[in-house]
Amino acid sequence: NTAIFIGGSSVAAAEGVLEAVKKTFFGPVRVSVMLDASGANTTAAAAVLAALKHVKVAETEALVLAGTGPVGVRVTRLLAIAGASVRVGSRSFDRAEAACATVHARLPDARLTPHATDSEAELQAALDGVQLVISAGAPGATTLPASSRATAKKLRVAIDLNAVPPLGIEGIAATDKAVEHDGVLCYGAIGVGGTKMKIHKAAIRSLFANNTSILDAEEIFEIGRSLK
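and the corresponding structure tokens:
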């Protein structure tokens, strides 16, 4: 009848709480735990599940914009697990490289490359040849202007997880859900929000099925995959 939900606005602090919680368990004396601070895990899972509807991820070159933040790192992890080649974008190449190292620590075989996206030329280079873009930037920050998006000739799916204007990917509405813009299937933050909430509710329910579950991004993603 008891489970622990770790939320809050700081994902890093929540991760520390999760590690502290796990250390208190011994033998069967434990309860199930779910980590979803700032909705990072459920948001990342919903975004990747939206992409899976339209691309064969194992054959996909993906770009995660603002890939150094909590949601971006989790999107990168989930795409890498699904077999995608992932370009991790950041205004700082060093931060992009550090984010790749963080994911590689969990997934040594992940196919990741860091990319600086601060200038238009850098952004266009990062976009060259990608079929999927997921923007996980901060509220009100545009990571992909329409002019740069137009240069991505192979782009098939674009997902923007920012619901605060100006949106992360210019030209996408927050409510878009598989809406085609210039030949690209687009999702906005509200467009993936319904799936996010379904995953959230299913994950919460699953906590009470046993007392041994530890739900982080990967486990929450699998719950999302099981939903009809």
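(Above: one complete record from the training split.) The two ends are 26 Å apart (CA to CA).
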